[in-house]
Amino acid sequence: MATDTQQHGLTAHSHGAGVPVASRAAHFTSYDVEAFEVPGGREEIWRFTPMKRLADLHKGAAATGSATVEVSAAEGVTVETVAKSDERIGKAGVPGDRIAAQAYASFVDATVVTLPKDARVEPTTVTITGPGEGKVAYGHLQVHAQQFAEGVVVIDHRGSGAYADNIEFVVADGAHLTVVAIHDWADDAVHVTHHHAKLGRDATFRHTVVTLGGDVVRVTPVVTYAGRGGDAELVGLYFADAGQHFEHRPFIDHAVPNCRSNVVYKGALQGEGAHTVWIGDVLIRAAAEGTETFELNRNLVLTDGARADSVPNLEIETGEIEGAGHASATGRFDDEQLFYLQARGIPEDQARRLVVRGFFQELIAKISVPEVRERLEAAIEAELEAVGA
After folding, report:
1. How many alpha carbons fall within 13 Å on the CB side of residue 382?
2. What pLDDT does 359 receive?
3. What CA–CA distance (Å, rounded) separates 179 from 267?
């Protein structure tokens, strides 16, 4: 288990309130909870988050329950419950905020799912059920795709309560790991999670986040590369209703030459107080020559009273790259699309549904598990039914 603190050139404890981080390379990370000050909401990484609705996870809330982790493993996939002292734990990344560090310090047992070397396996499903209404729990999951392994892991979150965790994805040389993380929590749930992915040489990582339920859900996927030729694609789909806060903060850290990343997140919002936040960070360090990267976020605001914040960030420390770019757009229905459909006799409510379906279809089509695709299509239909769109 790694125990070091990574400062990346910062003066000790320079991560406190009121001290902006000029570069994503200087972002503070540590396994030590006390190395982080208790955030008040004014810090850059917390300024969009409704701190009063976090069930005191940021203040070190004690665990008062436990989440249930059930794994339906494909043939050949191994599932273990291990202690924090297991040497494999902590290999993919270091907590990047106080809640992630608290989750690391507070979990008792970790679940390790391993896809065997040189094998192509059927999908495996990990179902995580919250501790229950009014309770707090912490957890840790690691998915390890060994050398040249290929497979899909679905992580399905459901239930009630407050839950904070770290999920590690260790993708060995030449492995191909596809992950679909579904957040379909009950209305009361609070979930703050860090996803740490480390890619080996010529490894491929496909990561999809789907956020549909919960009161507050904050997901921070972080990708790092351990060898040349790594290829990461991060896809996100979210649909926020009245009062829900969904926050996604992908960070791709290119520190190795000749690697690739592509990030595409799309969200829809409806209802009073619906709020989504997308902060996309890509860092291309000086050593990462030959990098190719792009990030895109699009938001569709369906009703008055909803708000989408979108901030793409691209930091480049070398000019020797294949290409880099980012884009962000937030808006309402395309009047031309609606007019086109209505002009062909399609009623307005049905036309609006078609536009929303088309908005998400590109991302849903990327999901290789038919049952998950069908579930998401049904969920989007249910969301549209709720407002009579």
Report:
1. 11
2. 85
3. 19
